[in-house]
Input
Amino acid sequence: MNNLDLSLSAENNNLITNHFLNLPDLHFFHKCNQQYRINRGVYNMIDDWFFEYGIVQIAPRRIFILAFLDFAYQENKTQSTKFLRFGHGGLMKKLNDFIKNHEKGSYGQN
Output
């Protein structure tokens, strides 16, 4: 996430008011596309999945989207493809794996 300008400064001291998280949807998607190489359809499915999971406010949902993309990217960074690929049913499986890791508190503790 370091390339996505989520740094906290004195005048922007929390993630909810972070400029990046409050961009219009298309601009936020373009940043995710540049960083994680996902296409619009995958981004929309991820966004919808977190909404249906119960994260309805946009800024917290975007934080979860970024955390998920980082999780998926770290596991797939050895692939030399243009976009993150999940395969048939792979996106839903990866989202469920991410949530299980998040709920256990083990995300990022490899």
